[in-house]
Design goal:
Blueprint (H helix, E strand, L loop, with lengths): L3 H16 L4 H16 L1 E10 L4 E8 L2 E8 L5 H8 L3 E3 L5 H7 L8 H6 L6 E8 L2 E11 L6 H22 L7 H5 L5 H10 L3 H12 L3 H12 L12 E2 L8 H6 L2 E5 L5 E5 L5 H11 L5 E4 L2 H7 L12 H10 L17 H15 L2 E7 L6 E7 L2 E8 L4 H11 L11 E9 L2 E12 L2 E8 L15 H11 L4 E6 L6 H12 L6 E5 L9 E5 L8 H9 L5 E4 L5 H12 L3 E6 L4 H10 L4 H7 E13 L5 E4 L2 H11 L14 E4 L11 E12 L2 H8 L4 H10 L5 H10 L5 H8 L2
The structure holds zinc ion.
The site of zinc ion has 8 residues, from loops.
């Protein structure tokens, strides 16, 4: 149908047909050909909402019989999903599972009609029928005869649905305004109601004032809302209804703010109780958080909703882990009396997640692992000083609630459980903001979560880095140079970022302009201009570096030299008069040179630019409360001599009788004997002799030999030095040396 006048003519006919029949069912036979001609389509179905049952029903007359198709308002069917989301939908192929999954993971096409009627549904246009923002039903138009449904069809459908919405309103007894019943019964004047609506900040205040200023009782208000929103009214009745058990998946303050509670009747059938049940996006979020297929929707007065949520409780904290776990085992609704600076009357799972985060920060953990198990409880482990430890267990029944809570906190899609997601969350502890990077990973046993606690606060002072005095003198000389490039290298988790920021902290003075490009920005320092790069959107380290060069820098930090482009740009920047700091994933300082030359960097440019390379590792330090002094054995001394090298042994000044320390274990260190970590370093300086070897692209061995003559000591040598100093034990050296 092309002509606008022609379309208007059909609309007029539709109106006439609807006016001349009392119900839609009676009008259906005459209505159908008109609607199909509007869209040039094969079939239509119109679903009406039923007020006392949260579903949709389509009625057809075949001869004398009336057929009914009932569909719940849920994402499990196309009509149900459109009713839930209140948004129109065009499906280009209902048999394409991927197309449906992209709309909602649980969306399905019911092919029963197709099968029993030897029909093939090719495409669908599905539109919600709304009146006064309340969902009244859904219209489906199936199989366009020529081509596909267009924007224009969508517009025509929306116009048609305005007409249908009015018809439905009369048929279903819907009202224009939630409080029309009060006007109708002369309980308040229209003018007074308008004034009240305009001067009330939210639904809760409006309802309170209707009750206090106009003496309207709760039941009357409820009936008025029920007629308008086309759902049953439920008042606060704790004998009959209780909070639904998976309530805990939803953030309590979120629910309160939106006046929504998920309650259940004596048979544990879930009911979503809302003060404004026409809020489709809220309903969609609740629906996906609950992850259940069937539930009812009801309207409640705002303060009743809050009563179900247990609004009377206040000011309790996350509580002890054991208490929360006990509580999970019994009931979620009990309140406890623990005090903490955090949170409110959140359900147990919310407090459990909060407790896990607090413990992680208190124990100085770097990562938290929430690992689902195929059978048995979920393990919660934390990486502390580089080692994973079992911290607690969560009953398997609460696994998905815990994951959902973490996802809500990190603004991830709760419904999406099949693909990994990345997000961030932040919480406050002792007034300090703690940032956490969150990664979800689907496993065969369920969805797992790994959280990394980002180092917060400022930089570590350079003196705390535990750099050996000879290395410190050389390092300071290198970074004080007006230009050049200094690389900090090592595997992931070797403390490179901490070191770079300690160096920047040392260099950070008002007369220096410092730019940093990092991914992510973990440590912040006043005076630095820090930039978060985002390779996903094409803002790379190389882009940032080019931007910095136009911004008058003295010192530039590039988070990582991931590729040739970045390495090349970094060297160019240092050759044009800037101090550049960066990192690389290489194992040793000399190896870094060959890696960069292999990338295709010019050996002359690189060796001219480079001032030094600092390789580093983290080793665990002995617990200062319980470390135990002992007389070094012959084996220990032989190990030290072999690892440090006979040629260098003199500089250690080993005494006649050497005393070392070993791990013991006490309460302070969780019986491990270790507490905290420290760096071991290998500092290569670019001397003229070494430079000539780089020009020649000499072997790693040759460059290492020269670097050691110039004063470099290996990671293992530095670790030995720290054993003798009493920081750590021989076992930790073996980890560095791989022996
Ligand atoms: Zn100890």
């Amino acid at each position: 149908m092309s002509d606008m006048n022609e379309i208007q003519l059909v609309f007029d006919k539709v109106n006439t047909v609807l006016d001349s029949h009392t119900t839609l069912l009676d009008a259906y036979k005459e209505l159908e050909p008109l609607v199909l001609s509007l869209f040039d389509a094969q079939r239509m179905s119109i679903f009406q909402r039923r007020r006392q049952h949260q579903d949709l029903v389509a009625r057809f007359k075949t001869g004398k019989e009336t057929l009914e198709i009932k569909v719940p308002i849920s994402p499990l069917s196309i009509a149900g999903y459109v009713a839930l989301s209140q948004r129109p939908l065009v499906i280009s192929d209902p048999y394409d599972k991927e197309e449906l999954a992209a709309i909602h993971p649980r969306l399905r096409f019911a092919d029963k009609f197709d099968k029993s009627n030897d029909f093939r549904t090719r495409n669908i246009l599905c539109i919600p029928i709304l009146h006064a923002d309340v969902m009244m039903g859904v219209m489906q138009i199936i199989n366009k005869n020529h081509g596909v449904f267009t924007e224009r069809d969508l517009k025509i459908a929306q116009k048609l649905n305005d007409i249908l919405g009015k018809k439905f309103r009369y048929e279903l007894g819907g009202t224009q305004n939630p409080f029309d019943l009060l006007l109708h019964e002369n309980l308040i004047s229209e003018k007074a109601l308008n004034e009240l609506q305009e001067s009330s900040s939210d639904m809760r205040q409006l309802v309170q004032r209707l009750m206090s200023e106009y003496r309207i009782n709760e039941d009357k208000l409820g009936t008025s809302l029920s007629i308008h929103f086309q759902v049953p009214f439920i008042s606060f009745d704790p004998e009959k209804y209780h909070l639904y058990h998976s309530e805990s998946r939803l953030n309590a303050s979120y629910l309160k703010r939106n006046f929504v509670a998920v309650i259940a009747d004596a048979h544990d059938n879930p009911i979503v109780l809302m003060a404004e049940p026409n809020n489709a996006s809220l309903l969609m979020e609740i629906e996906s958080a609950l992850g259940i297929d069937s539930y009812d929707i009801a309207v409640g007065l705002p303060n009743h909703v809050l009563q179900y949520l247990g609004d009377s409780v206040g000011g309790s904290g996350p509580g002890e882990m054991s208490e929360i776990l006990d509580e999970i085992g019994t009931s979620v609704e009990e309140s406890d009396e623990s005090t903490d600076e955090l949170s409110d009357d959140a359900p147990a799972v919310v407090r459990l997640v909060s407790r896990i985060l607090h413990d992680a920060k208190r124990l100085n953990a770097s990562d938290i692992h929430v690992d689902p198990e195929k059978s048995g409880p979920t393990r919660v482990r934390m990486r502390i000083d580089g080692i994973c430890r079992d911290i607690t267990q969560v009953p398997a029944s609460h696994h998905s609630a815990v994951i959902a809570r973490i996802k809500i906190m990190s603004h991830l899609n709760i419904a999406e459980k099949r693909v990994p997601q990345d997000g961030k969350l932040a919480f406050k502890m002792a007034g300090q903001l703690v940032e956490v990077r969150v990664a979800t990973i689907p496993t065969v046993a369920g969805e797992g979560v790994v959280m990394r606690i980002l180092a917060s606060g400022g930089a570590m002072p350079i003196e705390k880095m535990n750099v050996a005095p000879t290395n410190m003198i050389r390092l300071e000389e290198m970074i004080k140079k007006p230009h050049g490039i200094l690389l900090v290298v090592g595997p992931t988790g070797s403390g490179k970022t901490t070191t770079l920021h300690a160096l920047l902290g040392y260099l950070n003075t008002p007369e220096k302009k410092i730019w940093t490009a990092e991914d992510p920005v973990e440590i912040t320092q006043p005076g630095l201009q820090q930039v978060q790069v985002s390779p996903k959107i094409g803002f790379t380290f190389a882009n940032a570096l080019r931007a910095f060069l136009r911004a008058d820098p003295d010192i530039i930090l590039i988070g990582e030299m991931r590729d040739k482009e970045t390495a090349h740009a970094g060297i160019e920047a240092s050759l044009t008069g800037h101090m550049v700091l960066s990192t690389l994933h290489t194992n040793s300082a000399p190896e870094t040179i060959t890696r960069l030359l292999d990338l295709g960097l010019d050996p002359v440019n690189f060796s001219d630019a480079c001032v030094g390379i600092l390789a580093q590792r983290l080793i665990r330090t002995l617990c200062s409360d319980c470390k135990e002094k002992y007389q070094a054995s012959d084996t220990d001394i032989a190990f030290i001599k072999r690892q440090y090298g006979e040629a260098y042994l003199d500089e250690l000044n080993l005494p006649e009788s050497l005393e070392l320390y070993r791990a013991k274990g006490c309460d302070a260190c969780g019986d491990t004997g270790y507490r905290g970590r420290t760096g071991v370093h290998e500092l290569l300086g670019m001397t003229p002799e070494l430079r000539s070897l780089v020009y020649k692209e000499a072997s790693v061995e040759a460059m290492k030999g020269q670097a050691m003559q110039d004063g470099m000591r290996t990671l293992v040598q530095d670790a030995i030095y720290k054993v003798i100093k009493g920081d750590t034990d021989i076992a930790q050296v073996q980890i560095v040396s791989g022996d």
